[in-house]
């Protein structure tokens, strides 16, 4: 057994040398009404809000991409299918769903700097706008 190994042959970690309740005691001693703590809590809230919005936008973008691809594959069947009108009606319904999700993205970004969220929305918007433009032709 080497000097780095603890009981049972497991390696000791750096934090094993510290008392177990030491961190918790420090946390209890922090003055929660301190201006610095309050400022960090405000920053935390702002960052959490921005992160949540980013995640919602990523999800909407993925949903747009999925629905757009389904619509494209549906329209590819139109050449070999006997029921063209039915396929067109179904594709129009799917495109309405894509348009609604694009509107949701627009509402989420109202009053925001769009460049902070462009990586979250670009893939879905490119796919969705391509499909809606092609369907308009």
Number of strands: 0
Strand proportion, as a percent range, falls in under 5%
Radius of gyration over C-alpha positions, nearest whole angstrom: 27 Å
Major sheet, described briefly?
none
- Low-confidence stretches are none
Helix content: 55-70%
The end-to-end span amounts to: 76 Å
Structural class: mainly alpha
Tags for this model:
single chain, 137 residues, mainly alpha, 4 helices, 0% strand, elongated
Describe the protein:
This protein has 137 residues and is mainly α. Helices cover 69% and strands 0% of the residues. α2 (35-76) runs antiparallel to α3 (84-108), α2 runs parallel beside α4 and α3 (84-108) packs antiparallel against α4. The longest helix is centred in the middle third of the chain and has 42 residues, at 35-76. The protein is elongated, with a radius of gyration of 27 Å. The model has no long low-confidence stretch (mean pLDDT 82).
Task: Give a summary of the structure in a few sentences.
It is built from 4 helices and no strands. It is an all-alpha fold and 137 residues long.
Explain the layout of strands and helices.
Elements: H1 22-29, H2 35-76, H3 84-108, H4 118-136
């Amino acid at each position: 057994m080497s000097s780095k190994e603890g009981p049972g042959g497991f390696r000791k970690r750096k934090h094993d040398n510290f008392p177990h309740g030491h961190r918790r005691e420090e946390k209890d001693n922090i003055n929660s009404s301190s201006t610095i703590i309050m400022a960090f809590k405000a920053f935390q809230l702002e960052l959490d809000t921005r992160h949540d919005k980013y995640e919602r936008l990523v999800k909407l973008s993925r949903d747009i991409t999925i629905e757009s691809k389904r619509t494209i594959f549906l329209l590819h069947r139109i050449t070999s299918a006997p029921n063209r009108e039915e396929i067109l009606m179904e594709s129009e319904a799917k495109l309405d769903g894509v348009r609604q999700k694009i509107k949701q993205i627009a509402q989420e970004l109202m009053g925001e700097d769009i460049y902070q969220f462009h990586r979250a929305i670009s893939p879905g918007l490119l796919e969705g706008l391509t499909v809606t433009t092609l369907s308009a032709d």
